[in-house]
Design a protein that fits this description.
Layout (H helix, E strand, L loop, with lengths): L59 E4 L2 E6 L28 E8 L2 E7 L9 E5 L8 H4 L3 H8 L2 E5 L24 H17 L8 E6 L1 H12 L6 E5 L12 H7 L6 H5 L15 E6 L7 H14 L5 E6 L6 H29 L1
Parallel strand pairs: 2-10, 5-6, 5-7, 7-8, 8-9, 9-10
Antiparallel strand pairs: 1-2, 3-4, 4-6
Length: 358
């Protein structure tokens, strides 16, 4: 249940903090919940909770290549209709990992977990799971039915520990919040994470069924990673994301990375603003947002959807507004089944297109 008294990003209240404070609190920006934002910090605190996963039904009103719906009642996810790997087919091996979990691997000092289901397909379907700002990577697993869905649909899971990044492309002299000492989040993904996954595990290679799922700041990450790596990911899903930071110029997190909006508007409206780059969009996308979100306004996702439709990229884009849903794992977990269904529809259209060419 969403706490209606939670402060928004532009209205911060000081909450008790039971951590060792390394830097002076008066010099630190504040996060969405009002806690101090430490510099050079990569969060690694595992938070285990009961599964709050729910699913919601939808009635889609589709545009030619896009759709929008409003949902409120729960229904179970639909199992995958894709065929499992038959005994006559040779399942490609994922290097450096066995079936099940391989945890706390590392790239440039950033931890990641890898999950290999027994029934993954020959196209190595893979979902890169982007957590929320300062969320531990395993919350995706501990607080949703993600692993069950990965087994049902046969998707490899990659969970990087993205800490406090905004998926920025650069640091600046005014940057006060650095999630990594030397690597902006976008640069890490493009120049370190993706190449290492390709070389170490044979994953995230062009031509494979590569997908992205992100919540909150991770939802923003879905858009920026897709834009910075065009053609690599075949589909993405973003829950409660923010895509146009210039619409919230008092945002403390954005200010901590890009400097004040009034002083550096080009940083807020340039390369790291997904909505300003819709003309470059090349990926099917599933968007959803709760109407009761008091952390990131629903208008962020709806505005991005409208901008994508208006740009006419030719790729399927769906937007789902979920009545009464907040900014929490009850909502995000409930959206996972619909996201995988969307990926399977994209996958089916890819197969159909290939058959039509032969």
């Amino acid at each position: 249940m969403t706490n209606r008294n939670r402060p928004t990003r532009s209205n911060f209240a000081l909450l008790p903090v039971f951590v060792l404070v390394i830097c002076l609190e008066s010099c630190s920006p504040r996060d969405r919940q009002g806690q101090s934002v430490p510099s050079n910090a990569i969060a690694d605190a595992s938070i285990v909770a009961e599964s709050l996963a729910i699913s919601t039904s939808s009635i889609d009103v589709l545009l030619p290549l896009s759709g929008v719906s409003s949902r409120s009642s729960p229904t179970p996810p639909i199992p995958s209709t894709s065929s499992p790997v038959s005994s006559s087919e040779i399942q490609p091996k994922v290097a450096g990992a066995n079936v099940g979990w391989t945890r706390n691997l590392s790239i440039a000092g950033v931890a990641y977990d890898l999950y290999i289901p027994a029934n993954y397909g020959n196209d190595l379907p893979c979902a890169v799971m982007l957590p929320g700002w300062d969320f531990d990577k395993q919350r995706w697993v501990n607080e949703t039915n993600l692993q069950t869905l990965a087994d049902t649909y046969g998707y490899i899971l990659v969970l990087p520990q993205m800490g406090q990044t905004l998926y920025e492309s650069a640091y600046y002299p005014e940057t006060e919040m650095r999630w990594h000492p030397s690597l902006p989040g976008g640069e890490f993904i493009r120049n370190y994470f993706i190449p290492t996954m390709q070389q170490r595990h044979g994953l995230l290679i062009s031509g494979q069924h590569n997908t992205l799922i992100g919540l909150s700041t991770g939802g923003r990450g879905v858009a920026l990673i897709a834009l910075e790596n065009p053609g690599l990911f075949v589909a993405g899903a973003s829950f409660s994301g923010d895509f146009s930071q210039d619409r919230t110029p008092d945002d403390r997190l954005m200010t901590a990375v890009y400097g004040a909006y009034d002083g550096y508007p080009e940083r807020w409206t340039g390369r790291d603003n997904p909505q300003r780059r819709v003309s470059e969009w090349r990926m099917p996308l599933y968007l959803s947002h709760g109407t009761a979100d008091d952390i990131v306004p629903e208008s962020q996702s709806h505005g991005f959807y409208q901008a994508l439709v208006n740009a006419g990229s030719g790729h399927r884009v769906e937007y789902h507004s979920v009545a009464g849903a907040g900014h929490d794992f009850s909502f995000w977990g409930g959206e996972l089944g619909s996201a995988f269904e969307f990926f399977e529809r994209v996958r089916g259209s890819e197969v159909g297109a290939m058959k039509s060419h032969h």
